[in-house]
Every structure is written in structure tokens, then in C-alpha cells.
Amino acid sequence: xxxxxxxxxxxxxxxxxxxxxxxxxxxxxxxxxxxxxxxxxxxxxxxxxxxxxxxxxxxxxxxxxxxxxxxxxxxxxxxxxxxxxxxxxxxxxxxxxxxxxxxxxxxxxxxxxxxxxxxxxxxxxxxxxxxxxxxxxxxxxxxxxxxxxxxxxxxxxxxxxxxxxxxxxxxxxxxxxxxxxxxxxxxxxxxxxxxxxxxxxxxxxxxxxxxxxxxxxxxxxxxxxxxxxxxxxxxxxxxxxxxxxxxxxxxxxxxxxxxxxxxxxxxxxxxxxxxxxxxxxxxxxxxxxxxxxxxxxxxxxxxxxxxxxxxxxxxxxxxxxxxxxxxxxxxxxxxxxxxxxxxxxxxxxxxxxxxxxxxxxxxxxxxxxxxx
Length: 372
What we know:
- By secondary structure, the protein is α/β, with parallel strands linked by helices.
- It has 14 helices and eleven strands.
- The protein has helices at about 1-30, 50-70, 90-95, 125-135, 140-150, 190-195, 210-215, 225-235, 235-240, 260-265, 270-300, 310-330, 335-355, 360-370; strands at about 40-45, 70-75, 100, 155-160, 170, 185, 200, 220, 240-245, 255-260, 305-310.
- The strands form two sheets. It has a six-stranded mixed sheet, with helices on one face.
- Strand 1 (about 40-45), helix 2 and strand 2 (about 70-75) form a beta-alpha-beta unit.
- The longest helix has about 35 residues, at about 270-300.
């Protein structure tokens, strides 16, 4: 009897131990998820609060905040709230800000090669193709190399392919290359060199200062970016002529910056959230741009703005100026040449594929909506 009564007890102990071991094995296999308090990061954009670009910055932050729950929160301030618009990179690198939203071309003064992420014709690449080069063709490593060479310690994410930017807004339409000579003009990045070579006197003003400068006659013409931003910033209130299509900034995208120390301190799962939020925000931004830019383009027409296609002669002059600038900058800066060579190799391959495969969408549009 004693022996029989001991068997069920021993069996129970065996099952209990086995169950505990199984639970321990499952716990060991499960990923470690930190339960720390909320990480709050203070960002600043390079854009006025009313601009759609600042809205894009908030869209990115919202995706982070939604996915992270109470784990991480990004707060976005407009341009100038903490540092001037063109000092965003330094503000993030020094830790004055935890992060920021802008464009790489604004860092042109640190190293001229940085402007190749956005300025110029990109060997015929569109902005989405340039992003493909960045993430799959070696551009990301080159950008990190440039930041390291300039002692800028940040983590950079590029996203959001921008539509081709207009040649600019002018008091009178630009019909010839000669019309650019002697003009006081606003642009940024390597476009400064392009317009300067074409004879303009260039002033690289931040977005919020452009329209007041046009209104006071401090500049004769200016470019910013897109129909929505241009309407919100007030371009049609001071000038009524806009020249569409240009090679000065036809491949641009946005940049999201993190202070490296703040980023490195984040747990792995939050870094993964950032990765996926960048990709989601990139797609969302490109879709929103189509909707909003097309609506505002129609609104600008109703408001009496005159739109003209930039003459081919001016576009060819841009390409000729760009070639001279590329030769000069490549001779001065080995990193510049390194980036340029990488872009050229990728563009030759990817451009051949895209140009051969993509149908002429304008043919279909004209079939349905063009004049008979």
C-alpha cells in the first residue's frame, strides 16, 4: 500500500517539473521586449508650421507614435523653434535636438557632395529611382562616409520622393536663357551653382523668407518645391508666373535625422519601428503629394496664375551648366566624384530598364482628356 501511494505523488512531481521546464523553454525562446517608460524625442522640421512639408514631418511622427504605443513619442516643432532652419543638422548632431526633418541639400555647406542627394538631373533618374540607388546601390554608405568625414554624428534616413520642382516663380515669364542673366534669384544646394553659372545672382533663403523677399523686391524670382507649398507660402500673392519643369532639383527626397547617442540608446524593437515607419511614411507621402499637389495646381490656375513649360533651350542650358559644375566639383572633392560615379553607374543600368519598360502615360492621358 505504501509503495502504491507513493507512485501517484512521484508522478505528479514529474509532471509539475516537466511543465515548469516547458514554460521556461517558451520564455527563453520569446523575444525580450523592454517595458521601460516612454521615450520622448524632440524633433524640429526645416519648414514653416503651415507648409505641407511640416505636415509630412508630423505624418512620420504619428506613424512612430501609433506603432510604439506608450513606448516612444516624437514631438515635432516647426522651423526656427529651437535652431534656425539651415542649422538643423548641427542642432541634431550636438544634441540640442533629438532629431529633425529636412533635406540633405540644405547641408551643402558642410560638403558639396551632400547636394547630390536632390540637386541636378541625377543622370536621368527620377526621385524614386535615386532613393533606390541610395538604399540598394551604395548611396546610404556614401552618405554615412561623408557625415563621418565632416564630424557629423547623426543617423540619417531618406524617404519621400518629391515630384519634379518648377524652374521658378517670376514677375515676367522666362522665354530665353538670356532672361536669367542678372536676375536676383532664390534656390539652394548645387542649384545655386547651376543658376549662378547661368548668370543669376543667387540668395539661398529658407522657405519662410522667400515670399517676403519677393514682395519687397529683394529678389526677382524664386523656386521652392511644389504647387501645395508654393500656394501655402503665398507665391501667387506676389507673382503670377510660374515656369514648370526643371533639372535643378528633379531627384529630391526628405531626410529624417536622429542624434546618434539618442538613437543608439533605443531598444532594438523601437529601432525596427523607426525602419518600418520610414518606409510607410515614404509611400504615404508620395500618394498624398499626388492628391494635394494636383488639387492646388488647379486652385492656382483658378487664382489667375500663369503656368508655362520651361523652354527646352533653357533645360539644355541647365544640363550644360551642370556638366561644368560636376567636372569642377569632382576635381576639388574626391568624395563628390565617388558619389557621382556611383550614381552614374546605377542610373545607366536602372534608367535603361525604366525608359524601355515604362509606357508613355501622356499618350493615354491625351487619349482621354486631351483636345480633339
